[in-house]
Amino acid sequence: MIIYHPAYDVNHCSYRILNILNSIGDNKVHCDMLKIINFYYVYPHLLKRMEVFPKPLNYQAKKIKSIKDPFELTPNPSNLFFEMSPTQETAILSLRQRSLINVENNIISLEKQNMPKELIQVFKNDKFTKSDIFKILVACLPKVKLDGNNGLKARSGLMEYKYD
User: Fold this and answer.
1) pLDDT of residue 146
2) Model confidence at 123, in pLDDT bands (50, 70, 90)?
3) Is the pTM of this model over 0.85?
4) How confident is the model at residue 59 (pLDDT cuts 50, 70, 90)?
5) How far apart are CA 119 and CA 123, in angstroms?
6) Binning pLDDT at 50, 70 and 90, where does residue 14 land?
7) Per-residue pLDDT at 1 exceeds 80
8) Among the listed residues 89, 93, 81, 72, the one whose alpha carbon sits nearest the alpha carbon of residue 41
9) Are 138 and 23 in contact (CB under 8 A)?
10) d(CA 55, CA 94)
11) Residue 114 has what DSSP assignment?
12) Any idea which of 5-19, 48-62, 100-114 has the lowest mean pLDDT?
C-alpha cells in the first residue's frame, strides 16, 4: 500500500515555498523561518503546541487555538520537522536552479519576474491561501524573532537555537 503525504512531496513543497514567498510582504525571508512556515503550512494544528506564543502570534491565539486537529495522529513535531528537512532542501535547490528563488546570506527571495503568471493566479485561487491560518503564517511568523531563548526556534522546539 502506498501512503501519500504532502510533507514529503518535493513538488508540493516547491509549491508551498513559492506560495509563501509570493505572499510575504517583501517576498524574502530567512531560510530557517521559511522552513518553519513551510512546516506549519502542512501541520497548522501544531501551532497550538507552543506553550507561549511569541508577541506577533499572541494576538492571534484565539484563531490558532480554533484550528481543528486532523484525524491522523501526529508524532513529535521536532521529528516531523527533521524528516521534512531533506524534502525542503531539495525543493529549495530545485527552485534555485530554475531561477525562481535566490539564496544569499541565508535569505531566500522570490524572483517574481521569473514566476509564471498562471502560477500566481493559482495562488490567488488557493483555498488555504485565503484562510486566516495562512495569513498568520505569512504575516505574523516572519515578524517573530527567530534566534535566542525567546525566539521562534526555541518556542516551537523545531530547531536548535543555543548556538545561534
Assistant:
1) 83
2) very high
3) yes
4) confident
5) 6
6) very high
7) no
8) 81
9) yes
10) 34
11) G
12) 48-62
Residue 96 · residue 103 · CB < 8 Å: yes
What is the sign of the dihedral through the CA atoms of 161, 95, 134 and 66?
Answer: negative
pLDDT reported for residue 162: 59
**Terminal CA-CA length for the chain:** 42
Containing 61, the helix (H) or strand (E) segment is helix 61-65
Question: Three cell numbers at 37?
Answer: 512556515
Contact status, residue 41 vs residue 34, Cβ threshold 8 Å: no
> Is there a contact between 6 and 14 (Cβ–Cβ < 8 Å)?
no
* Strands lying side by side in the sheet with 101-104: 28-30, 107-110, 101-104
**From its phi and psi, is residue 158 left (phi > 0), alpha (psi between -120 and 50) or beta?**
alpha
Q: What are the start-end ranges of the E strands in the chain?
A: 28-30, 101-104, 107-110
Match 498562471 to its residue by C-alpha cell: 118
Exposure letters 124-153 (e unless 16+ CB within 10 A, then b): eeeeebeeebbebbbebbbebebbeeebbb
Q: How many angstroms separate the CA atoms of 163 and 42, rounded?
A: 27
